[in-house]
Design a protein that fits this description.
Blueprint: H1 11-31, H2 63-67, H3 89-92, E1 94-101, E2 104-111, E3 114-118, E4 123-124, E5 127-132, E6 136-141, E7 144-149
Antiparallel strand pairs: 1-2, 2-3, 4-5, 5-6, 6-7
Length: 161
């Protein structure tokens, strides 16, 4: 019986096999992309009412903001004429700021050293607060209408209407 003899492996055959293996390994991600991970279906979100806005803090919690305005370069309140001497409400009161939490709005107004917290419907020396905007408070009375506007801080240019 004659023995079947295989040809001797040569270096060229080994290098060719290594090159084919490297090419197949490099092409593997494009030929067979990984399967996406199977995730369980998420439960439908529960329908719940929107969270109620939190109550606004009292005026005493904002004294540091009034005494050291955030957007004033000097961190000092603006130097204005003494409020309280003029006959009109605009000259007596100064709007310090407005706080809005959801639909609720509060305005902080100063008359000299006295600070007052007002909301829509409150009265201020016979004037009724009719609306609180983001930078002004509208007041009405039998004498007419008035608006307290938020004054720009020192060093800030006045906004054009």
């Amino acid at each position: 019986m004659t023995a079947l003899r295989l040809p001797a492996l040569r270096l060229n055959h080994l290098l060719a096999a290594a090159a084919i293996f490297a090419a197949a390994l490099a092409a593997w991600p494009w030929l067979f992309p990984p399967l996406p991970a199977i995730r369980p279906l998420a439960a439908a979100p529960e329908s719940r009412p929107p969270a109620a806005p939190t109550a606004l803090a009292p005026l005493s919690g904002y004294t540091a903001i009034v005494e050291h305005p955030l957007f004033s370069p000097s961190r000092r309140p603006p130097a204005t004429a003494s409020a309280g001497l003029g006959p009109s409400i605009e000259s007596r009161y100064r709007l310090l700021g407005v706080v809005a939490t959801g639909p609720k709005r509060k305005a902080f107004v100063a008359e000299g050293a006295r600070h007052v917290e007002v909301t829509v419907g409150d009265t201020l020396d016979g004037w009724t607060i009719s609306d609180i905007g983001k930078d002004r408070v509208h007041l009405t009375s039998p004498a007419g209408e008035a608006a307290l506007k938020l004054a720009p801080s020192a060093g800030e240019p006045a906004k054009k209407p």
